[in-house]
Amino acid sequence: MDGLDFAGKVAVVTGGGQGLGRSHALALAARGARVVVNDLGGTADGAGSDTSVAQRVADEIRAAGGEAIGDTHSVLDGARIIENAIDSFGRVDIVINNAGILRDVAYHNLTGEQWRLVLDVHLNGTHAVTRAAWPHMRAQGYGRIVMTVSAAGIYGNFGQANYSAAKLGMLGLANTLAVEGGAKGIRVNSIAPVAASRLTETVMPAKLLEGLKPELITPLVLCLAHESCPANGALYEAGAGWYARVRWERSIGWSSPPEDGVTPEALAAAWDRIEDFTGAIHPKSVVESLAEVGRQAGVDLTLSPQ
Ligand code: NAI
């Protein structure tokens, strides 16, 4: 494969001042993209701000001969970030939604503020940035969007109810934007990374952290951000040089004629069949998902994607 070149492209990397975002921003710029390095520069739990965090990475890019500006808005001010990209570079081709904070706490102790703050930065912030970039991407018939989600959302993780809900909210957003943007040349994919950063350094053993370089996540982001991006609406897990795709799996299931009705006892008796993944299928769309229900109801739903 030829080198993945980003000449002529403008990328916005949120939370680009450190950790994964910094690595993505440096790599995109090194390969020719003009980069908006966005970072509010707060603490890991989202308190405060520091304008030097984004600026330092933008300076580093420029010192290496690349083009970049620092942007210190919160992702909740997504429109201002995209405005900055348009004012400085005239377009926006790539959005890497990466900014993030943690407020981990067991669900029974979770406060309204902890819930709102985490939902705000991850989900509402991602929406604010993406929604502002969307009309530009539609108008130019081109866009690449990457959502940074998490295994905590995919599988659940103790103490991360707010974070898990936000991250799978981002995945749902990505899935629908992939459907809506496909015909306009926009591809939207998600990654669930594992990397050493200030978010993980206190919860993972030092030996493991040594192998979890953020630079090992960046190649996946670059593949998904490139013109040749092979995917749309996909989810990948990655870490320590390992990359894999994740998809939904559905059992063949059990059914009863709808006109007969179904008792909970009949359902309980069929439980093993409902749980049996032998010959499982992997629906890729709502149409594929509804096909079985349609068959059961005697209606061909393949013609009506609503
Ligand atoms: P990090 O803390 O090094 O980087 C996150 C950056 O986002 C920080 O520079 C922070 O200042 C910035 N940020 C926070 N709130 C912001 C806001 N409102 N507006 C703009 N910028 C803001 O952490 P890391 O690990 O590099 O995280 C990057 C992303 O990857 C996050 O979304 C995180 O949830 C996700 N992630 C990371 C994992 C890991 O193993 N490091 C695992 C799964 C997901």
TrEMBL record:
Ranges of residues in domain Ketoreductase: 9-197
Keywords annotated in UniProt: Oxidoreductase
Gene Ontology MF terms in the entry: oxidoreductase activity
EC number, as in UniProt: 1.1.1.-
This protein's record includes keyword Oxidoreductase: yes
Domain of life: Bacteria
Pfam families: adh_short
InterPro entries, per database record: KR_dom, NAD(P)-bd_dom_sf, Peroxisomal_Beta-Oxidation, Sc_DH/Rdtase_CS, SDR_fam
Entries under PROSITE patterns matching the protein: ADH_SHORT (PS00061)
Cross-referenced CDD domains: hydroxyacyl-CoA-like_DH_SDR_c-like
Keyword Oxidoreductase: yes
SMART domains associated with the record: PKS_KR
Gene3D superfamilies the record matches: 1.10.287.4290, NAD(P)-binding Rossmann-like Domain
Major enzyme class: oxidoreductase
Family membership: Belongs to the short-chain dehydrogenases/reductases (SDR) family.
Annotated PANTHER family: DEHYDROGENASES, SHORT CHAIN, SCP2 DOMAIN-CONTAINING PROTEIN
Name of the protein in its database record: SDR family oxidoreductase
Lineage summary: Bacteria, Pseudomonadati, Pseudomonadota, Alphaproteobacteria, Sphingomonadales
